[in-house]
Amino acid sequence: MNPGLFRHRITFQKYNESAVNENGFPLEENQRWQDIKTVWAMIKTLQGREYYEAATTQNENTVRFVIRYTSGINPDMRIKYKNRTFEILSVINDDELNKTLTIIAKEVV
Questions:
Q1: Contact assessment for residue 13 and residue 39, using Cβ atoms and an 8 Å cutoff
Q2: In whole angstroms, what is the distance from residue 23 CA to residue 1 CA?
Q3: Which of 4, 34, 79, 103 has its CA 20 to 30 A from that of 73?
Q4: Is 48 strand, coil or helix?
Q5: What residues pair up with 38 in beta bridges, in sequence order?
């Protein structure tokens, strides 16, 4: 595993339905996402059959993130990368070796 390939900083966020502000009022919908974990990732574009299968659903930007293995990542979360937001479609433990996770995500527009 080449650590130089993991050069993109991404943040995992989890939705909190019961989030309130300092006065006890519920937060707006877009403010209920809380940062859970920030990690280094490798971003890979989809190629070949993967790209065409993803493109058939709609004109979506589907991306593959590869991170070092960490527990607690699930499809209920989302990813923040720079000023972009991605909805997690699947989380795959590569070869079941607990070394890397491949995360397939689509950009939220």
A1: no
A2: 48
A3: 4
A4: helix
A5: 11
- Predicted confidence at residue 105, as pLDDT, reads 95
Which residue's structure tokens are 């499809």? 75
Query: Domain span at residue 71?
Result: 3-18+28-107
Token pair 């502000």 is found at 21
For residue 4, what is the DSSP state?
Answer: G
Average predicted confidence (pLDDT) for the chain: 88
The neighbour count for residue 38, using CB atoms within 10 Å, is 11
The pTM assigned to this predicted structure is 0.83
**Rounded distance between C-alpha atoms, residue 21 and residue 83, angstroms:** 23
DSSP classification of residue 47: -
Q: State phi, psi for 13 to the nearest 5 degrees.
A: -125, 145
Domain count, the chain: 1
38: in domain = yes
